[in-house]
Amino acid sequence: MTETIRSSDIELLERLAASKSRIGDEIAKVIVGQDRVIEGLVITLLCRGHCLLVGVPGLAKTLMISSLAKALDLSFSRIQFTPDLMPSDIVGTEVMEEHPETGRRSFRFVRGPVFANIILADEINRTPPKTQSALLEAMQEHSVTVQGNTMRLSEPFFVMATQNPIEHEGTYPLPEAQLDRFMFNLWIDYPNRDEEITIVRTTTGAFDVVLEQVLSAHDIIALQNLVRKIPAADEVVTYAVDLARKTRPEEPDAPGYIKEWVKWGAGPRASQFLILGAKARAALDGRYVPSREDVRTVAMPVLRHRLVTTFAADAEGVSAPDIVRKLTGEDG
To answer: Within 10 A of 154 (CB to CB), how many other CB atoms are there?
Structure first.
């Protein structure tokens, strides 16, 4: 079925392109640098996806996502994952109440922190799989079920989960099947020297920053629908599918280094996210169609957490990002 862009969609696309710099400007009031990460978050949100953010503590991940929520006028909730966290601590629970006049008792559902537009799941690998799965179910279905009652979550619904790459004791790493539910895996690195000087100067003074709203929840939902309408040329779709298929060592066309270094490659969900991410990136630039370059640009955050490397790769010091760079021709 051929997708079409109407005149009203073109106006919305132009508004999104104009809003891109405004969103960046608002977040830049409190976050120094990290433009690539912020763009990745916005792309994921526009695709109705979810994001896994990996970085050491102290890099303002919470401030970044809460600032994005303010700029987009979306409700925000932070969940600190701990070993004793239970599923009911996330989705909510029923409590018994007694009516002050009649004395009759009844159950009332108290909503958990998952009932928000943007969720920060801080250190998701610090809680047991049972609790992890409660959040992952909400991510997939955009609803929660308690005592047989299904409740829809507010749209748009976006989860950003964080993981600490340097601590592994007492953690519960997400299995590959659960990692696959995250559209992007973004790596947040240390700021450079000039950025760190600016961070220290601005965060140790008496600065009171007020963020202005750039878009609304209604706007975001309309833009999410617009991204799906943007057409992708057959050769761009083919390129994305071939790129994902080349990560699978059992494929006849897979390069030799894939057969040597990769145990399991990316599944069809990766192909879908490559195209959706390319569409959203094109939309942010005000373009009506995505290109192969858009696919290459989103390949790293889409593929890096979907490749399981072999012992040979580990022994040679070859990581999943190294393999993605080689696949996309960015290794030199």
So the answer is: 13
**DSSP labels, 248-265:** -TTSTTS-HHHHHHEEE-
Q: Which residues contact 35 (CB under 8 A, 6 or more apart)?
A: 24
- Give the whole-angstrom CA distance, residue 49 versus residue 293: 21
CA–CA dist 27, 36 (Å, integer): 13
Q: Which two tokens stand for residue 176?
A: 């590959």
pTM over 0.90: no
pLDDT score, position 255: 92
Q: How far apart are CA 328 and CA 117, in angstroms?
A: 34
Q: How far is CA 215 from CA 12, 36, 135, in A?
A: 12, 20, 26
Q: Which pLDDT band holds residue 199 (cuts at 50, 70, 90)? A: confident
Confidence of residue 140 (pLDDT cuts 50, 70, 90): confident
With contact defined as beta carbons under 8 Å apart, do 315 and 261 qualify? no
> In whole angstroms, what is the distance from residue 314 CA to residue 316 CA?
5
Q: Where are the domains of the chain?
A: 1-86+115-229, 232-332
Q: Domain 232-332, CATH 3.40.50.1360 — does that match?
A: no
Query: Got the DSSP string for 69-111?
Result: HHHTT--EEEEE--TT--HHHHHEEEEEEE-TTT--EEEEEEE
Per the CB < 8 A criterion, the answer to whether 264 and 307 are in contact is: yes
User: Which residue in this structure is represented by tokens 């047989």?
Assistant: 148
Handedness of CA 228, 230, 234, 238 (dihedral sign): negative
Summarised one tens digit per residue, pLDDT across range 69-113 is: 888 889 999 999 888 888 888 888 877 777 777 778 777 778 888
pLDDT digits (tens, 9 = 90+) for 225-242: 989 988 999 999 999 999
Pairing of strands 262-264, 92-98: unpaired
Domain covering 1-86+115-229: architecture: 3-Layer(aba) Sandwich (3.40)
Please check whether residue 189 is in contact with residue 149, taking contact to mean a CB–CB distance below 8 angstroms: no
Q: Please, what's the largest Cα pairwise distance for the chain?
A: 76
